[in-house]
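Subject: for your reference before the review

Hello V.,

The reviewers asked for a structural picture of the protein, and I figured it would be easier to keep everything in one thread rather than splitting it across files. Below is the amino acid sequence we used in the manuscript, unchanged from the supplementary table.
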Amino acid sequence: MSTATETMRLEDAMRLRPAWVEIDLGAVRHNVGVARRLAGSAKIYAVCKGDGYGGGVIEVARSAVAAGADALAVGAPADALALRKHGLRCSILLYAATLPEDAAAVARLDVTVTVHDFPSLQAFAGLQTAVEAFVKVDCGLGRLGFNPEDFPTAFAQLAAAPSVRFGGIYAHLQMPEDDAAVSQQMRVFDAACQAAEQAGFAGFERMVASSRVMLGYAHLNLTAINPGRFILGMMEPPWADKADYRPVVRAVKSRIIQVKDQPEGTIGFGGPERREGKVRAAVLPIGFGEGFPHLPPCHEVLVCGQRASVLSRRGIEHTVIDVTRIADAGIGSEAVLLGTQGPDEITAVELAQALNVPLLELLPRLARCAPRRYFDGGSEVAAVSL
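And here is what came back from the structure prediction:
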């Protein structure tokens, strides 16, 4: 191996490929500040699951805590471990994601664990060391959590487990656009809280307000809220209009690596696409490997302040665009696939609708797959080295 190869950092090598996503950490702090005003006296558990919704769990979590989040919530043990190794000392709630047989290893992560069924309860209750736990209840989502008929037995067993420190109850509500559905689910949640009180517990956290519930039902902030997509600015209409949030995934950009004239006729990767007349085509080194869909519709990009259509299918590492009418487009020209260039903007909502991919699915994909560059307002800042 050459000396040059030995001394080049991975980050430097990644930047040799001119395609990236821009993450605005100032937007994280702004959004947490808005959530703080909406939450009132309730604690904020800033949700950073999925590697911070693709934005980087360490960077997102640090920004959220700096802005006043009381605690964090993650969905994977690796994210919890990374947070602890990088000095985050606040409470971390680990959503249910592990097997009962691994209870001892999970307890060593120094997190608040989730008890969501009898096997998980018994596993944590059988430990020789103390562990703090939240109970997850199923109010109708049909996923994780104790069912209503289980509440009395579950909390009685929890009260008899000296190794488990009961910290709170949480649930994820479905259909927040339906007031009647929310009311029905809250009756189930209230029944769980009553069962906990009958088992002798008091003063525990009560949490049902994820992002949309926080925005639509202020009275359900209870003692704690757990917004995630709002913290990352990943809200779609009509919820996007209910509060002043900023997008954390603020742009996806690339630079042109080739421009050439294609003869009249067939053009397009993976299948014929007829084009009338010559086409001046440009190639971007970004494709479905970075989270964009492979098959059309593939929408447009901004080049030199103008819109350019994506031609045919994307490759895993390439996107071909039509710059026939953009005379100034050349090698090195910046292309914006998401974000602002000149007077025009491709918003996240527009892009998600054009690609027929839900916004909450698309943005984390793009943020996780493309090389990330971090900004605080207008200044680029260094990423954390894992």
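For the response letter, the relevant points are probably these. The chain has two domains: 40-232, 249-378. The longest helix spans residues 179-198.

Happy to draft the paragraph if you're swamped.

O.
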